[in-house]
């Protein structure tokens, strides 16, 4: 029995061990490159690619935070006022009907001779099922003096805006809001309101429902800045204000 075993050439003598070792070395090299791309000899491509992706993600976040400041408008060539648009081809019945369908219920008497739309915000209301609506007047300079309103902690509420549009169509009207507590930004949001044609009757728009934070650390005074801008990044109103979150709603209307 021992003679048979001794007579059989070893795997190493036949070259199988050499092949196995070479395969193992190759496998280890590939695994090393896969897990440590920065050690690759391919001109450092893995390392550079990884760093660029990380930096791109960071700068994308920064751009999101400053989107309103860096937004640029696209020039579409010569423009004309809404009144000029309506008066063009007014003898063409089909075209006139198409324009009426496109523009909706435009108040002809409220159309100006300028390209720039006029948007005037009349009031902001806080709507909550827990109490009557809180109607907040907006000062001309957009800076309410003192405490503007108080929210009850944990309450569900919506913001409702009332505004008028004149002269021309306002496109892509949106709302941004940033809140700070003791100088630290704690909340930021952006919401699309929509596109509106000029009319004498005020528009009313309600935002999605929000829930006020609750707890000992949530209660206190906050400062905030709200903006209303359009697609061209034109700001129609900026409100800088303070508000409180307390255990109960403030007394009063």
From TrEMBL:
Family membership noted in the UniProt record: Belongs to the Rho GDI family.
State what protein this is by name: Immunoglobulin E-set superfamily protein
- Give the subcellular location: Cytoplasm
Which organism encodes this protein?
Answer: Theobroma cacao
Report TM segments. Answer: none
Supply the PANTHER family for this chain: RHO GDP-DISSOCIATION INHIBITOR, RHO GDP-DISSOCIATION INHIBITOR 1
What InterPro entries does UniProt report for this protein, alphabetically?
A: Ig_E-set (IPR014756), Rho_GDI (IPR000406), RhoGDI_dom_sf (IPR024792)
Keywords, in A-Z order: Cytoplasm
Biased composition (Basic and acidic residues) is annotated at: 23-38
Q: Which Gene Ontology terms cover its molecular function?
A: Rho GDP-dissociation inhibitor activity
For the biological process aspect of GO, one term held by this record is: Rho protein signal transduction
- The protein's superkingdom reads Eukaryota
Disordered: where is this region?
1-79
**Record's GO cellular component, any one?**
cytosol
């Amino acid at each position: 029995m021992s003679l048979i075993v001794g007579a059989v050439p070893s795997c190493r003598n036949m070259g199988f061990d050499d092949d196995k070792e070479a395969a193992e070395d190759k496998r280890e090299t590939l695994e090393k490159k896969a897990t440590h791309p920065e050690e690759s000899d391919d001109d450092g491509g893995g390392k550079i690619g990884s760093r660029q992706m990380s930096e791109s993600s960071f700068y994308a976040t920064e751009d999101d935070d400053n989107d309103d400041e860096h937004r640029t408008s696209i020039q579409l060539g010569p423009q004309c006022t809404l009144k000029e648009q309506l008066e063009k081809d007014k003898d063409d019945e089909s075209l006139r009907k198409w324009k009426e369908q496109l523009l909706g219920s435009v108040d002809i008497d409220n159309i100006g001779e300028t390209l720039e739309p006029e948007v005037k915000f009349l009031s902001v209301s806080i709507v909550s099922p827990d109490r009557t609506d809180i109607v907040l007047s907006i000062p001309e300079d957009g800076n309410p003096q003192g405490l503007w309103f108080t929210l009850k902690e944990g309450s569900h509420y919506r913001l409702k805006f009332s505004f008028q549009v004149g002269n021309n169509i306002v496109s892509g009207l949106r709302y941004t809001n940033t809140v700070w507590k003791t100088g630290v930004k704690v909340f930021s949001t952006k919401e699309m309101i929509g596109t509106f044609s000029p009319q004498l009757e005020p528009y009313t728009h309600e935002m999605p429902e929000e829930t006020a934070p609750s707890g000992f650390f949530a209660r206190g005074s906050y400062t905030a800045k709200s903006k209303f801008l359009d697609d061209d990044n034109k700001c129609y109103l900026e409100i800088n204000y303070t508000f409180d979150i307390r255990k109960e709603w403030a007394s009063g209307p």
